[in-house]
Amino acid sequence: MLNFTRKKTVYLKDLFEGDHVDIHSHLLPGIDDGAKTIEDTNSLVDNFLELGIRHIITSPHIIQGVWPNNSDIIRNKEGEVRPVVIEKVSSFRAAAEYLMDESFRKLVREKDILCLKDHYVLVEMSYINPPLSLFDILFDLQVAGYTPVLAHPERYLFYHDNFDMYAKLKKAGCLLQLNLLSLSTYYGKGVNKTALRLLREGMFDFVGTDAHNSRHIAYLKQKFKLESTEIAQLKTLIKNNKTVFAP
User: Fold this and answer.
1) Does residue 138 form part of some domain?
2) Is residue 110 part of a domain?
3) How far is CA 84 from the centre of its chain?
4) Strand order in 147-151's β-sheet?
5) For 154-202, how does the pLDDT look when each residue is reduced to its tens digit (9 = 90+)?
6) Cα(32)–Cα(135) distance, rounded to whole angstroms?
7) CATH no. for residue 209?
8) Percent of the chain scored above 70 by pLDDT?
9) Cβ atoms of 161 and 189 closer than 8 Å
């Protein structure tokens, strides 16, 4: 006999309960593929408030040759934006999302890292393939006193048929951050399937919107159909964000 699991409809706004801490977004204007202007920033922040996000740690890309940001560029842009944004939200600050490559290893050695909070560092990989020195990078990062938080692991297609790699990443001290858009098929069915499996198996540690634009916001406001176990795990992750990253 077939056993169908009943799914429930949920909205992120209801789960956030008006005081969510988002740790992954691209709100600083004009320095990566996120907000282009301060007007875009304002619009995204207003929509965050509608969703119940009151604390924002925004995380522009640092990718040499593509988005060659550095700590000074990000801090300066944060200083420009802060007077406008802080009037609306409870807290606002900038960190960064680092591509794990050799230039990142140099920043780690120099301890020129913008953390999400304390020692937590948001990192990502190429969508084409992982760095050859991935586990060396993770080791060096932790030796330097940092804790890696891997952004959107469900989006790395090269791991979809090698699911054991997620456990190896966790064993190597890497925490995992779910992109909330992956709860839909926004990134494709394969990403959605992997995200839900990781969620059910309790592999994620935190969540992030990874909001870049109004299209992302529209999806974040839609209803999600999830199993009870998936909703329970999602609530735990939302709580983790508040526990670890709230000011």
Assistant:
1) yes
2) yes
3) 23
4) 61-62, 97-99, 120-124, 147-151, 175-179, 206-208
5) 999 999 999 999 999 999 999 999 999 999 999 999 999 999 999 999 9
6) 27
7) 3.20.20.140
8) 98
9) no
> How many C-beta atoms surround the C-beta of residue 164 within 10 A?
8
38 part of a folded domain: yes
| Strand-pair partners of 120 | 117, 147
88-110 pLDDT, tens digit per residue, is 999 999 999 999 999 999 999 99
Question: Which pair of tokens denotes residue 7?
Answer: 């799914």
Range(s) of the domain holding residue 68: 8-245
Number of domains in the chain: 1
For residue 1, pLDDT beyond 60:
no
Angle of the 189-200 helix axis to the 228-245 helix axis, nearest 10: 80
Per the CB < 8 A criterion, the answer to whether 168 and 199 are in contact is: no
Return d(Cα 120, Cα 163) in angstroms, integer: 24
Confidence at residue 172, expressed as pLDDT on a 0 to 100 scale: 98
User: Is 1 inside a domain boundary?
Assistant: no
Instruction: Count other Cβ atoms within 10 Å, centred on residue 86.
Output: 14
pLDDT at 6: 85
Helix/strand/coil percentages in the chain, nearest 5: 45, 20, 35
Render the burial of 87-118: b for 16+ CB within 10 Å, e for the rest. Answer: eeeeebbbbbbbbbbeebbebbeeeebbebee
